[in-house]
Amino acid sequence: MSFITKLKTAFGNSKTNSATAISDTTDAIINDIEHQPFAISEHNVLYAGLNELGGYYFFQTVIVGTFKIKTKKGAQLSIHGQTSTFTLESDSFELESDPTDIKGRSITKIDFQIEEQNVEKIHPKAIDQFSLSCDKQDIIFSVIHLNDEEE
Fold it and tell me: Which of 77, 92, 128, 146 has the greatest count of CB atoms below 10 A from its CB?
């Protein structure tokens, strides 16, 4: 069986090779996109920002990586901070990931409604992690805390 394992590895079918490729892809996402990531999971990078439109606030997210979804059930984003935890609902129930030119990588845009009193709580220094739940998929994102020199 050792010969078959070596043969699979030579053709890129080894589990070890795919895990390395996924890790490289996460680093490649950060290098490929000019914006600063907000949070990162094992296989995905979360880019995010607050926006206000007509007195309503939205936490706009873009997830780049292996996360791929097509649902009519919406999504929930739980925000776990140092002093509080709260959950945001997506502003749309219909969500669909878009493919990219890079095999295995998708882009998913999800906007979440946020109450004005929670806007101040959406700051990288105040958040430890995000939990995204969407159509039986759960992803835990760790917030990227910048050094004081980089801020």
Answer: 77
Classified as helix, coil or strand, 150 is: helix
Distance CA 122, CA 135 (A): 24
With pLDDT > 90 as the criterion, what percentage of the chain qualifies? 54
Look up residue 67 and give its amino acid. Answer: F
Place of tokens 């669909």: 96
Yes or no: say if 84 and 121 are a contact pair by the CB < 8 Å rule.
yes
pLDDT at 149: 39
Give the pLDDT confidence score for residue 130 in this predicted structure. 93
Say which residue the tokens 């140092």 belong to: 82
User: How far is it, in rounded angstroms, from Cα 27 to Cα 105?
Assistant: 12
Instruction: List the structure tokens of 111.
Output: 């906007």
Those residues whose C-beta lies under 8 Å from the C-beta of residue 135, and which sit 6 or more positions away, are 69, 71, 73, 75
Mean pLDDT, range 83-93, rounded to an integer: 93
Sequence-ordered alpha helix ranges (H) in the chain: 2-10, 15-32, 116-119
Looking at residue 90, what DSSP letter applies? B
Overall average pLDDT of the 70-83 stretch: 93
